[in-house]
């Protein structure tokens, strides 16, 4: 699939070179070279479309017998790719990124995570080195928990990596709360702490996230989050309540959950594929519905919206910041409209569920 008429398929090495040029900026490499590098990087992203779509088809089969399972498919925003490459203290290369194309499965329990992973391993090829990262059995220090698989899909003689995340609803609620907090406070809590240290309030907010993840791990009976080994739920709750940031943080989270998503507005015609199209500026969500048998049509429509969002026909420089009528689009599979809130391409619906869960602990 070619988005730019004057750009042919690019190699992994060429993509990495272009990514380095974009990070250096036009002021260092010249305007013409910079614009060419943007085109090459955009093309590399576009080449992940078909491999990611193939993975999504396999996922639909893998969850067909799992009640309440939700699947999503998306391409990483170009601006997000560039932000990752430019992240301080990291050495990411564009050609080596595993998550340009991504699929996600959200299920009810850790045992269902294992079930899905087993099916996927039987039906897809994976990286020779580090084909998976099981952050459920070995949670990160931040509290992040999810099972990542790195599929390798061949398309037109080239091999592309597609990241598949399989997680429980609790793990997903936690992850979207991290995104919400990052936006509320203008600080990236998804990334490791800054080498030069953080403000004390940011340190406390990270402690909040780690403690909540520890509670959720206890609830699900999975491996403890580092630093919470041997602690009971009451111990973790006491730790949470000792944080000076807690009250204001919960107020801010509840205020951010403006609940644009209203599944009752969708005709209850059962399950299927749902294209969720979100405009942040207008706080508007549109939903298009397709039968599972119409997967090709749904993917074609997703691709059309992707082109609008990324703004391939506009000035090359503006491509990095996105554009178009929608800010985000996600293709999702769900067995009924009510399940769609978990796949909502903004954090508000999941933050409501996150804060409601914490109410059960008196927080």
UniProtKB/TrEMBL annotation:
Membrane-spanning regions, if any?
none
Top-rank taxon? Bacteria
Q: Which InterPro entries match?
A: GTP_Pyrophosphokinase, NT_sf, RelA_SpoT
Which species? Answer: Bifidobacterium pseudolongum subsp. globosum
Q: Which GO terms describe its biological process?
A: guanosine tetraphosphate metabolic process
SUPFAM superfamilies, alphabetized: Nucleotidyltransferase (SSF81301)
Q: Record's Pfam families?
A: RelA_SpoT (PF04607)
- Where do the RelA/SpoT domain residues begin and end? 73-189
Name this polypeptide is given: RelA/SpoT domain-containing protein
């Amino acid at each position: 699939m070619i988005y730019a008429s004057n750009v042919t398929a690019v190699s992994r090495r060429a993509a990495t070179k272009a990514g380095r040029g974009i990070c250096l900026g036009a002021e260092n490499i010249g305007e013409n070279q910079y614009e060419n590098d943007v085109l090459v990087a955009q093309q590399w992203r576009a080449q992940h479309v078909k491999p990611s779509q193939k993975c999504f088809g396999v996922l639909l089969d893998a969850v067909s017998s799992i009640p309440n399972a939700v699947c999503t498919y998306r391409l990483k925003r170009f601006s997000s790719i560039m932000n990752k490459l430019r992240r301080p203290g990291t050495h990411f290369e564009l050609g080596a990124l595993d998550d340009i194309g991504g699929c996600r499965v959200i299920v009810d329990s850790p045992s269902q995570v294992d079930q899905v992973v087993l099916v996927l391993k039987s039906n897809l090829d994976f990286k020779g080195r580090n084909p998976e990262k099981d952050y459920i059995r070995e949670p990160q220090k931040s509290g992040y928990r999810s099972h990542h698989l790195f599929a390798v899909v061949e398309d037109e003689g080239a091999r592309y990596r597609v990241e598949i995340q399989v997680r429980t609803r609790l793990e997903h609620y936690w992850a979207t709360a991290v995104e919400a907090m990052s936006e509320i406070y203008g600080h990236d809590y998804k990334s490791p702490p800054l080498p030069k240290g953080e403000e004390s309030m940011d340190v406390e907010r990270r402690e909040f996230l780690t403690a909540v993840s520890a509670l959720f791990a206890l609830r699900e009976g999975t491996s403890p989050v580092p630093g919470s080994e041997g602690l009971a739920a009451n111990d973790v709750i006491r730790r949470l309540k000792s944080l000076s940031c807690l009250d204001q943080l919960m107020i801010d989270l509840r205020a951010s959950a403006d609940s644009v998503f209203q599944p009752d507005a969708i005709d209850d015609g059962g399950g299927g594929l749902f294209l969720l199209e979100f405009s942040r500026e207008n706080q508007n969500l549109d939903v298009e519905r397709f039968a599972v048998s119409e997967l090709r049509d749904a993917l074609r429509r997703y691709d059309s919206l992707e082109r609008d969002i990324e703004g391939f026909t506009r000035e090359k420089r503006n491509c990095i910041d996105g554009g178009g009528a929608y800010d985000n689009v996600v293709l999702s599979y769900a067995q009924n409209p009510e399940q769609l809130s978990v796949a909502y391409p903004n954090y508000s619906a999941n933050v409501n569920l996150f804060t409601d869960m914490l109410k059960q602990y008196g927080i």
